[in-house]
Specification:
By secondary structure, the chain is an alpha+beta fold. The chain has 24 helices and 23 strands. The two termini are 25 Å apart.
């Protein structure tokens, strides 16, 4: 009879228990020991130091403000360069090296336009790189949750800019740092006018991004910020702004490229290289990337100009596919109690594994299974019209009204605000109303006015990617040869002599495939476009759902135009209802490395893993967070740490800590056993 690994180790430990202070049996984890570089400990996550630094310091196309302005800006609170203040907002400090000559914090970079104008911006590393301190030692975890306070950073930056233009005593030294000591008064006046204009627009952006309930560190309303950015700033329609009041924790990135769907609510498919590029391009637009949203001038220029750096995004995604989760570091955080972990393994298999799949250590994997956990039980789940009507009530009157009307009952119990906001929000589509991205001849659907914010974002992202394909023909080749390239037909059915290079002419992309119809579009080109847009596989976006009331057939048809296949749907309304039910859910993912990802739940409302196993009534109503320090016993944020200055209040809208009571029926002994097992994943 073969014993499970942990059971065998537990039996060995019990046999040794009669001896004085027996050594803990080793955990057979196939990783190298932690290494210390520049005072930080790095765990073996499958990346080399060079790959890590490239990821930290490579631009994606974010442009917050002129680089020379930013480097010359002074923090009015500290009287030091503002660049040194970024870490005051919780972001990880950069390390010296050739990749980072100006010693910017992790994920803050220089971006250069074709005209050589340089910009200061962010990358995904800023929000998805986390420092974790335990026993006085700080580990830098790639792909983990930042302790950064995004709103604190942008509001602090806005205050610094305003202080500079509000006082000649502050502006004069700033101008000297930017222009040099020999600058003329005329040059300084021109700079002053430019900085004043930036101050006005950036302050308006910050005001529009101010949540009613503070996010604090380690969270942001990602969809709210992206929707505001694209619909209000890029479309120049301030009326589209909404307070971003549905904050979520930054998801950890290991395993993410291998999941079939991404985002907490599974909004985006993730099957092809184009899917991944679309998701990452949307992230760039949310962190100060720029896109010019105006109707294409003609068929030969059917795209939007943007600052998205698609080739870098493809390279980053391919690198992230190699990132592995961090193993609990016994030498730094203390040994795992193997006996308790062995007892916790069957508890996990019985209570957790059906939703949270296990990815075995030491094995190569290409998929990371997920489970979407529905937020609601529908009173008439098989009646498409009833589901659509219930969803309309949720969007227009709120979840409580739908429950009171007995249209739905609460299932999972988690705070639904993020999922509801992501699906319900509508915006004025302004100048690009009736524009389809991709073009209608490729199956795209024109934007309505108003339309869902999610549809507008999809339109902007696809148009920006098409523009990047024109600007960077090599991007097409990157997509076709990537680790999850979307063109399996290349080796199976491509005509003799065909190659992706045939799509380029003189070093620029031949846009003919995008705009010609019928016989003028060659079969080869049709295949490439089908691969790029995911036709016949997984479509690039999850589509529209009406913001309220019952949908007409025309609305339903538009709503499901970009949605994933729904199986046996026999009508547009049935497909729409299936999409609604699918997306009003939160994702349960593999929990490898979960020890390094506090706080927990989609909105960061539970401070540690121990409380995740308690009934809601026994969880902390408030707790402090913001420090890198973790509690190695309960495994989560250390609320007693000096840097834990933000008070998280779970009574506030969007902050509720309800749901996920799957550990409520366990005994306390079982909880501690399960907790110890979770350290080993």
């Amino acid at each position: 009879m073969k014993l499970p690994l942990y059971a065998a180790l537990a039996a060995t430990a019990l046999l040794l228990s009669a001896c004085a202070e027996p050594p803990q049996p080793p955990r057979p984890v196939p990783v190298k020991p932690p290494v210390q570089v520049n005072g930080l400990w790095y765990l073996d996550q499958g990346w080399s130091e060079e790959a890590r630094q490239w990821y930290y310091n490579t631009t994606q196309g974010s442009q917050i403000m002129r680089y020379d302005w930013f480097m010359a800006l002074e923090d009015p609170q500290t009287k030091q360069p503002f660049v040194k203040s970024i870490t005051r907002y919780g972001y990880a400090a950069g390390t010296p090296g050739s990749w980072n000559p100006d010693l910017l914090p992790v994920g803050f970079v220089k971006d250069t336009d074709p005209d050589k104008t340089t910009w200061f911006g962010m990358t995904c590393a800023a929000c998805h790189t986390g420092d974790v301190t335990v026993n006085g030692k700080t580990m830098r975890i790639d792909g983990a949750v930042t302790t950064g306070d995004l709103y604190g950073f942008i509001s602090g930056l806005s205050n610094a800019v305003h202080a500079t233009v509000a006082s000649d005593a502050a502006f004069q030294p700033f101008a000297t740092r930017v222009l040099g000591a020999t600058a003329t008064d005329q040059q300084k006046l021109a700079l002053y006018d430019q900085l004043t204009a930036f101050d006005k627009t950036f302050a308006a952006f910050v005001a529009a991004s101010t949540p009613d309930t503070p996010w604090g560190s380690m969270r942001t309303d990602a969809f709210g910020m992206i929707f505001n950015r694209v619909s209000a700033i890029d479309l120049n329609l301030p009326k589209n702004n909404r307070a971003p009041n549905a904050p979520v924790s930054y998801p950890f990135l290991w395993d993410a490229p291998h999941q079939p769907r991404v985002q907490w609510n599974g909004l985006l498919p993730n099957a092809t290289a184009f899917d991944a590029l679309g998701r990452n391009a949307g992230e760039v637009l949310g962190v100060f990337g720029k896109v010019t949203l105006k109707p294409p001038a003609d068929a030969a220029h059917y795209y939007y100009n943007s600052t998205v750096r698609g080739r870098n995004l493809v390279d980053m995604e391919n690198q992230l596919r190699k990132l592995r989760s961090p193993v609990w570091p016994d030498s730094l955080a203390g040994n795992v109690d193997i006996v308790k972990a062995a007892a916790g393994e069957p508890i996990y298999k019985e209570n957790c594994e059906s939703c949270h799949a296990i990815l075995p250590r030491g094995e190569t994997y290409t998929t990371a299974p997920i489970q979407m956990v529905p937020l609601f039980n529908w009173a008439q789940p098989d009646n498409a019209k009833a589901v659509i009507a219930a969803f309309g009530t949720i969007c227009t009157k709120g979840v409580d009204a739908a429950v009171a009307a007995k249209m739905v009952t609460v299932n999972y119990g988690a705070d639904p605000k993020m999922a509801v906001d992501a699906l319900c929000r509508q915006v004025d589509t302004g100048a690009i109303a009736n524009v389809a991205m991709p073009p209608q001849l490729l199956g795209g659907k024109p934007l309505k006015n108003p339309d869902l914010a999610a549809n507008l974002l999809s339109n902007a992202v696809i148009g920006a990617i098409f523009g990047d394909l024109v600007r960077e023909p090599g991007l097409l080749l990157d997509l076709l040869k990537g680790d999850n390239a979307p063109a399996p037909w290349l080796t199976a059915s491509a005509p003799a002599g065909w190659s992706p290079e045939s799509l380029t002419k003189g070093g620029t992309l031949d846009t003919t495939p995008f705009v010609k119809q019928g016989a003028k579009m060659t079969a080869d080109h049709q295949k490439v476009i089908a691969a790029l847009t995911g036709r016949g596989q997984t479509k690039p976006t999850v589509g529209a759902v009406p913001a309220g009331g019952s949908a007409t057939k025309a609305q339903a048809k538009a709503a499901v135009s970009a949605a994933p296949a729904t199986g046996g749907a026999t009508s547009d309304e049935e497909a729409l209802a299936a999409t609604i039910k699918q997306l009003l859910a939160y994702k349960a993912r593999p929990l490898d490395g979960v020890w390094a990802t506090a706080p927990f739940m989609h909105n960061g409302s539970v401070p540690n893993l121990y409380e995740m196993l308690l009934p809601v009534s026994q969880r902390s109503a408030t707790f402090r967070m913001g420090s890198t320090a973790i509690d190695p016993v309960k495994v989560g944020v250390d609320s007693s740490a000096a840097g834990a200055t933000f008070v998280y209040d779970t009574t506030k809208p969007g902050n509720h800590n309800t749901g996920h009571e799957f550990g409520a029926s366990l005994t306390d002994t079982q909880r501690w056993q399960l907790l110890e097992y979770l350290k080993t994943l």
